[in-house]
Amino acid sequence: MRTHHEGTQERQRNPTRAVAEAARLFNLLGYTVTSLDIVERELRVRWEQMDPSPGGEQLAREAFDFSAAASDRLLRTAVEAEETGPGKLDAFVTAFRSAMERPPVEGGSPALFAALPSFEALPFLEARVRAVVDAWRHHVRRIIRLGIRRGEFRPSALPEQVASIVVGTMEGAMFLHRLYGDASHVDRSIAYLHRYFESEVLA
């Protein structure tokens, strides 16, 4: 068993370890008040009764931000690896599939499904979830505008409309996958989006 001093030294060497573990637990349990209490208790046990990070709402904030940042890195890496507008658009969609198969934080990515039922109990999460979705929509709008300028997408393609359809479809598909444990919902949604891109977006 670690001593209090040894635990303190380990925490100083790994300042995000407790937050990363909290993010994993929140993703698995959800961001409800009850789960928040469970996560805090679990972390205290693992860290020998130490305060692993700011408790209560601050712990939930840091955990959500950790998950969101990890998911954003995965998304940005996928999109930036492509040179063309169509490639970037496809990479954005398939990044959701990759996050489902290999989530950057165990339990799901980017913790949106875990956070949504918790707005009433933990209202500070609503602004954070909105910021994540705003970032996704911003990514898609930029891709569409870039593709239109390059002649890769139709001038009639509406960036805001495409962003709503892509984000809404993929997040809904992830919800169904989480609810039923069936990846076919995600595959069908991706196939639908590819047909939509062919008929409405690609030049």
Summarize the structure.
The protein has helices spanning 4-13, 17-29, 33-46, 56-80, 85-101, 112-115, 124-149, 159-180, 184-201. The chain has one domain (4-201): Orthogonal Bundle (Tetracycline Repressor, domain 2). With 203 residues, the chain is mainly α.
Question: How would you describe what is shown here?
Answer:
With 203 residues, the protein is mainly alpha-helical. The chain has a single domain, classed as Tetracycline Repressor, domain 2. It contains 9 helices and no strands.
Give the overall shape: elongated
Strand content: under 5%
* Domains, number: 1
Q: What structural category arises from helix and sheet content?
A: mainly alpha
The CATH homologous superfamily: Tetracycline Repressor, domain 2
Total beta strands? 0
User: Approximately how much helix is present in the residues?
Assistant: over 70%
Radius of gyration, whole Å: 19 Å
Distance separating the two termini: 64 Å
Characteristics of this structure?
9 helices; 203 residues; elongated; Tetracycline Repressor, domain 2
How does the SSE layout of this entry go?
Layout: H1 4-13, H2 17-29, H3 33-46, H4 56-80, H5 85-101, H6 112-115, H7 124-149, H8 159-180, H9 184-201
Helix pairs in contact: 2-3, 2-4, 4-5, 4-7, 5-7, 5-9, 7-8, 8-9
